[in-house]
Amino acid sequence: MEKVLKSNNKEIITTTIETSLANAIRRTVNEIETLAIKEADIFRNDSSFSDENLVHRLGLIPLKNIKLKKGDVVELKLKLESKENNFDVSSSLLGDSVAIGEIPIVRLGEGQGVELVAKASLGKGKDHARHTPGLIYYYHLNKISIKAEAKNNPEPAERYPKVFEFNNELKVKDSWACNFDEEDLNVKGVEISPTNELVFIIENWSGMSSSEIISESVKILKSNLDNLKKILK
Asked: How many whole angstroms separate alpha carbon 223 and alpha carbon 201?
């Protein structure tokens, strides 16, 4: 396994694990417990949004993941009145529990206000998408071979400029960008074959890092398998 890219919200690694295991890890992301807003007490809402739409927007805001006891609730308070027209209420106004502060919640006109107490608790993505901490997906890394009969053909570079380049001769520019097969390309002399290597991408939009997401997914998957083993015994 080799880490190819790491940023604030994405990691890319290459691995030769079986696709069945990769898929199991991908699915287990939805079993990670995360914090999300489920309901809110609204005391004032002069915006064009109904109370239901406002709560829906709040539920989509990623929160920092903290450890809570089962049944515990975190309250996020919001109280303001706009002194200008077209004032955008952003998620940062809900406090430090918010993972991304630039998300717009609602737009207020001059003199309009909103006052509420949002209530967040733990849940899993398999029960509701608002609890999904991120996304894992993968594809096979392709091997591309260009035979002599295709070297003077600029068509692949015209159709897939991220993968091929043509400067008097057809060449592979970036095989990583090749997410299509030989039948899709259908150019004589260009052979595309999948390797045993998987490109594994982990993206996050919550308070959890990409490394934490994959680590927690593997931990939960192992626990599920241990429980299955006990049941079978």
From this structure: 23
CB 145 within 8 A of CB 61: no
Domain at 2-30+135-201, CATH homologous superfamily: RNA polymerase, RBP11-like subunit (3.30.1360.10)
Check if the beta carbon of residue 61 is closer than 8 Å to that of residue 105. Answer: yes
Q: Where in the chain is the domain with CATH 3.30.1360.10?
A: 2-30+135-201
Please tell me the pTM assigned to this model: 0.80
The answer to whether 9 touches 203, Cβ cutoff 8 Å, is: yes
- Give the 3-state DSSP-derived string for 125-140, with helices as H, strands as E and coil as C: CCCCHHHCCEEEEEEE
Structure tokens, 183: 């039948």
pLDDT in tens, 73-129: 999 999 999 999 999 999 999 999 999 889 999 999 999 999 999 999 999 999 999
Containing 5, the helix (H) or strand (E) segment is strand 2-6
Burial class (CB in 10 A: 0-12, 13-18, 19+), 52: exposed
Cβ-Cβ contacts under 8 Å for 1 (sequence gap 6 or more): 13, 14, 15, 16, 17
What are φ and ψ of residue 21, in 5° steps?
-70, -40
168: tokens are 């008097």
Q: What is the largest CA-CA distance in the chain?
A: 73
The class of domain 34-130 in CATH terms is mainly beta
